[in-house]
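Appendix B. Extra example for self-study. Work through it before the problem class; the solution is given directly after the inputs so you can check yourself.
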Amino acid sequence: MDQPSSGHAELAARSIPAPLVTVQQHILREQRRFAGVSGEFSWLVSGITLATKLIEAKVRRAGLADILGTAGEINVQGEVQQKLDVYANEMLIYALGVRESVAMLASEENEQPLISHGGSPHAKYIVVFDPLDGSSNIDVNVSVGTTFSILRRTAEHLDADATPDEILQAGNRQIAAGYVVYGPSTMLVYSAGNGVHGFTLDPAVGAYVLSHPDIRMPRQGKWYSLNESYLDRTSPAVQRFVETLRHGNDPQLAGRRYGSRYIGSMIADFHRTLLKGGVFLYPANDEYPRGKLRLLYEANPIAFIAEHAGGKASDGRGRVLDIQPDSVHERTPLFVGGEVEMSLFERFMAAER
Ligand code: AFP
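Solution. Structure tokens for the complete assembly:
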């Protein structure tokens, strides 16, 4: 006589396809490995996924804005048209501000950090973000993105309001970080320190589903990515580095001559670098003597993702993640890429010192 089949075997027999793994399921699964972890962290991340879904819906309609009403006017839904980056900022503040675990938010769009649950013993996290990076590209239908970095409060007792200096933590103290790229598809790339995972937004079900588990940055790519118009205004070592990539004339490059790719939207440029390899650089130049990109909510999340995917990120002097910030909106040069390109870069920078 046949043995009764287990539920699992029965499902398999009915050839039901493996269920999708959503970002929430993935986080909960990861957390189960640590004793005593509450659901607060996954609830916090759900604030980011909710806000970025709202942002993506708006970004998708960007080209229709003129049809529905011009800026400053009331559109057909009775809403006043807003700039997309203002909208993106508001969605993140709204979605994260209601999470009790969030003590403080800092955004590229706000001069001062915002306290959300002052004095709550549960409010142990700080979230720093750039709501819509590359927004000057929206008019021409180019990919844009949101970056975020999650820190733990540094105060010993959580029963007092968080103070802005608690945000000033080196990137190596991030407990999770990532970005969402709004491209031909919308994708969340995330790490909580245990690998880098990519989740693609399935518009049919409205959920981010695991599409790129355990992303590894290729050891060597074939493209460098920078705004070349500034090259003659950067340091000689950076110029030599780019020249060498172009000509492939260093034994470390094994004869590979690099091509150039630059979108001017950091997340899109970095996302390509993460998946295909190579190096993205935004050095200091005479217009931006400390670089253009912001340390806390642009360079740090990117560096965190790069390192956890086997790559490296430097400010030209050392590891980006070791920089102690002095202010919330400070800038930094950023050089981020695969093992081969970054070790060549470090050699060139060391020779200049
Ligand atoms: P916007 O958000 O104003 O479009 O700036 C985008 C950005 O901060 C970053 O995403 C790009 O990598 C960088 O600026 C491009 O700067 P350049 O125009 O100087 O190359």
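Self-check: The pocket of AFP is lined by residues 133-137, 227, 264-266, 282, 292 (CB under 6 Å). If your reasoning did not lead you there, revisit section 3.
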